[in-house]
Automatic annotation (TrEMBL):
It comes from Undibacterium pigrum. It comes from the Bacteria. Its EC number is 1.2.1.27. It is an enzyme of class 1 (oxidoreductase). Belongs to the aldehyde dehydrogenase family. This is methylmalonate-semialdehyde dehydrogenase (CoA acylating). One of its GO terms (biological process) is thymine catabolic process. It holds the Pfam family Aldedh. The keyword Nucleotidyltransferase does not apply. One of its GO terms (molecular function) is methylmalonate-semialdehyde dehydrogenase (acylating, NAD) activity. InterPro entries: Ald_DH/histidinol_DH, Ald_DH_C, Ald_DH_CS_CYS, Ald_DH_N, Aldehyde_DH_dom, MeMal-semiAld_DH. The keyword DNA damage does not apply.
Length: 503
């Protein structure tokens, strides 16, 4: 148990009130650039978890009946509050997570786009109708909310990913219990406070904290109808299996090993800039980071130029000006990344740029790892098979586009991939033949805008429906199909019909 000192305690949000937990188990929230303790976060007690579920269940009775326009206007107000508080939110995020201020604003902005989409719920939650499907018979559908839903979010996007979840769920008429990462919950709590300020009623949004016990409680509780998860493959698989066994809907976005193919005809300067940014930005702590580059043919000659781009990136605390790469989230994360680098060397990959132990004046205790590049990487090596979640790039070779596609399709993950080329024919072949859910053509991190859904595939995803976009409306609503006939008293009733036809 962490020793409590004079730093703030992170609150719980239950039934519209920010409350102090009665937990005896707490964790420090630590600035990864300095090791400064920023706050203490509680591991929610069973009674507090039950209170959150009770509040959400009670609030659902009235929230589900709230006019769709009223719900939409709350999110119109909410997006404005996020914009007005962007600088504060970004500073909080950088302090506890480590990413640069510019990247923190990007984190918040991509979540803000989903909030704006939630404000359009009136157009998204409409059903369908077919008139006169039989004599005097109409059939129509209603998309109605499920009840209490829950979300479990990771440390790497503590603003964006919570905003993927609760705005769409709540806009659809559900109530929500959010469990943010215990490593960086402060910006998530501030976003929850702003949601209350925007008019989200008590009990409609609740926030709890904790580890495995709370995750299991969310999966098991009979009053929680759906669970959304983003995080590691190990935990996501556990959540999906446990939640679905308990009869819940579940969507789990999990681990990745994203590849980019570079053809020799690609725009060299733009491609190199995109590869370096996507591989090393956010210290590689993105589930859509480009961690593998497959150079085809003469593009293999670009390695020295790519290394120059990597060496040019500035490593520093995220709050410092002109920083390109901040620290990884924790000492444990740093140790794991460094261990995998050592494993890559031991397994025969060539370390052409070593980012271990960079010198960062003034931040000697930070969890820093600089850009690291391996060549000669082959399937079977741990640096290729595992999601490193650090600024480590693996470079592979292929003779043809077909050979490169075969490498990617043999990898079990399917979160994202990209092709860099100026050939429309090559791009079309890639789109058709690649077995990955999200594809970029000269776009290194092809996360779709909220008009579309996040569509990772294969081992990167469990569940049929992705976050935000049209798919998440289906996930957070139950479709009811109504077949109705209204009789005209002037028409003869006829005789008894014992068939199933609607004549």
């Amino acid at each position: 148990m962490a020793t409590l000192t004079q730093v703030p305690n992170v609150k719980l949000l239950i039934n519209g009130e920010l409350i102090d937990s009665k937990s005896t188990q707490w964790r420090n929230v630590i600035n990864p650039a300095t090791q400064q303790v920023l706050a203490h976060v509680p591991f929610t007690t069973p009674d507090e978890m039950q209170a959150a579920v009770d509040a959400a269940k009670a609030a659902f009775k009235t929230w589900r009946k709230t006019a769709i326009g009223t719900r939409a206007r709350i999110f119109l107000k909410y997006q404005q509050l996020i914009r007005e508080n962007m600088a504060e939110l970004a500073a909080l995020l950088t302090a506890e997570q480590g990413k640069t201020l510019a990247d923190a604003e990007g984190d918040i902005f991509r979540g803000l786009e989903v909030v704006e989409h939630a404000a359009n719920i009136g157009n998204l939650q409409m059903g369908e109708i077919a008139n006169n499907v039989a004599s005097g018979v109409d059939t129509y559908t209603l998309n109605q909310p499920l009840g209490v839903c829950a979300g479990i979010t990771p440390f790497n996007f503590p603003a964006m990913i919570p905003l993927w979840m609760f705005p769409m769920a709540i806009a659809c008429g559900n109530t929500f219990i959010l469990k943010p990462s215990e490593q960086d919950p402060m910006v998530t709590m501030r976003l929850a406070e702003l949601a209350m300020q925007a008019g989200v009623p008590p009990g409609v949004l609740n926030v709890v904290h904790g580890g495995e016990d709370i995750v299991n409680a969310i999966c098991d509780h009979p009053d929680i109808k759906a669970v959304s998860f983003v995080g590691s493959t190990r935990v996501g698989t556990h959540v999906y299996n446990r939640a679905t066994l308990a009869g819940k809907r579940a969507q789990c976005m999990m681990g990745a090993k994203n590849h980019a193919i570079v053809l020799p005809d690609a725009n060299k300067e733009q491609t190199l800039n995109n590869l370096a940014g996507a591989a090393f930005g956010a210290a590689g702590q993105r589930c859509m980071a480009l961690s593998v580059v497959i150079l085809v043919g003469e593009a293999n000659q670009w390695v020295p130029d790519l290394l120059d781009r990597a060496r040019s990136l500035k490593i520093n605390a995220g709050a410092e000006a002109n920083t390109d790469i901040g620290p990884v989230i924790s000492c444990t994360a740093k140790e794991r990344v460094e261990s995998l680098i050592a494993q890559g060397i031991a397994e025969g990959a060539t370390l052409v740029l070593d980012g271990r132990a960079p010198q960062v004046p003034g931040y000697e205790h930070g969890n820093f790892v600089g850009p690291t590049v391996f060549t000669g990487v082959k399937p079977g090596m741990r640096v290729y098979e595992e999601e490193i979640f650090g600024p480590v790039l693996c470079i592979m070779r292929a003779d043809t586009l077909a050979d490169a596609i075969a490498i990617i399709n043999a990898n079990p993950n399917g979160n994202g991939t990209a092709l860099f080329t100026q050939s429309g024919a090559a791009a079309r072949t890639f789109e058709e033949d690649i077995d990955v859910g999200q594809i970029g053509i000269n776009v290194p991190i092809p996360v779709p805008v909220p008009l579309f859904s996040f569509t990772g595939s294969r081992a990167s995803k469990l569940g049929d429906l992705g976050p935000y976009g049209k798919q998440v409306i289906q996930f957070y609503t139950q479709t009811k199909t109504i077949t109705a006939r209204w009789f005209d008293d002037s028409v003869s009733a006829g005789k008894v019909n014992t068939t199933i036809s609607l004549k």
